[in-house]
Please model this.
Amino acid sequence: MNKPRLQKLYDDEIRPQLMKSLGLKNIMQVPKLKKIVLNVGVKEAVDDSKALQAVIDGISKIAGQKPVKTLAKKSIAGFKIREGMPLGVKVTLRKDRMYDFFDKFINLALPTVRDFQGLNPRLDGRGNYNIGIKEWIIFPEIEFGAYDKVYGLNITIHTDANSDDQALELLKKFKMPFSKK
Model:
């Protein structure tokens, strides 16, 4: 089986470049992508269970694997939420699926965002990067008008970098479109 395009790029070009630019002595110290988590909250799921099924179908198309339902941790009477009630879906991508999704995200989906100025280059302090997408229709698998409602999506890119600077350098080498602040 062939390696995904971005994984081959990482192994052949990015890893040696990062080792040199970060001044690392061992190839195993070079930061790499660990996983990508896609998460969608569905507030309509409180009243309508079909809304959750539509999101499951959409995320399955985007990610290429079936998501799991996320459940409410505690009851909140004001929002009509009971403990254990499904409120969203998430999927964790690793290895080949992670690289395939990442390639599709930065090369196909992000360029279709209207008035795109680049992503904020701020990380979470642990070498991970969060991106909030307002409309999931930027992905080529989602047909416009196929769903009753357009959902937002949170994408978390987990790296094993020791610092935000190393993680940012890794993402820049993958040609992640950061804004020039």
